[in-house]
Amino acid sequence: MKFGAFRFALPLCAGLASQVQAQSSLTLYGIVDAGFRHVSNSGVGSIDSLSSGGYRTSRLGIRGSEDLGGGLRVGIKLETLIGVDTGNVGSTSMPGQFWNRGSYVELLDRGWGTLRLGYDLHPVYVTWMENDPWLNIGMGSSGNLYDTLQNGPLRAVFGPLSKNDTTLHYARNMLQYFSPNVNGFSGTLALAPRENETVATGAARLRLIRLGYNAGGPFSAAVAHAVSDAQLRAGTPTNRLDDSVATLAWDFGVVRLAGTWRQFRAAGSRQANWMLAATVPVSSGKIQLSHGRTRLYGTVTTQLAPGTVAGPVDGNGGAMWVVGYAHSLSKRTTLYTQAARIENRGRSFMALPGGPAVNAGNFAGGRSTGFEFGIAHTF
Questions:
Q1: pTM for this structure?
Q2: Residue 367: CB atoms within 10 Å
Q3: Mean of the per-residue pLDDT values of the chain
Q4: In CATH, which of 3.30.1380.10, 2.40.160.10, 2.115.10.20, 3.40.50.300 is domain 27-378?
């Protein structure tokens, strides 16, 4: 009798489990990417290293969703950085921030769009990054052409804080609305309060708008503008940064071409960035090429980089060339290699990641070259 009841209960429990599974899901996912990297900085030296995230950022994440019925769904995401070479996890520059690649909850409606609350990628940065063949990652990253180490609008607003902890890439305390795609057109609105915090915590007040077009065809385009207000120290005035981006892309089948412009503007100075990129699909992979340029304008008087003086930054900037190949061993595993070169102009001292330490005194106007190869696996 007991055995018969047990046999009856088994399919009933299985049916209930299937129903729950159909209504909600929780997924553990990640990427493990490691490679060998060589970087040489003219007049300073060279370094060989094992790198993490040369093609895709190594990460561990949790993604969940629940179907609420009537076209309404709730979703969550928690994601952290993994240092495959060291075993470290979480932020390397902001103590206590474990979920440093995203932590949010969202409500999605098929007809009305998505409302998202929490820590997430900055939509202006996403617009810039999605047309970078290397997705702003590793040696080929278009982000190698801007940082808070150089004198200019970024350092004037955020000081020497790592750019990864500013609103250049992510934003804290963010409320975002993503419209549904209507005949290819979509929009994003975002707001983030500063909560009376200084840049030391990564906080800044943010207002943002983005408009895009992508109908699933070969052509896509987007424009976006954001304003960040950051406070360097308690009791001091906030500093404003205007961050604008525009991008165009066309997939011809045999090659995908993209052009992107991004500008940072603060009181007294601005920085303009351009990127041209090409992706060429081949039998079991793709060839990736990009060329980027950056130039600074105006005058800086505060938050000066060590070894520099106040004055004009006109003529500072640089150019970067990158070529690489990604070979798919399977849907989840990729072998990759790339080579890159940065040439500085004026008093700029930008360099590829993983090389010897540089500054205005030992590398102004210098040249940084490097190559890397590695393997990335997605699970």
A1: 0.89
A2: 15
A3: 93
A4: 2.40.160.10
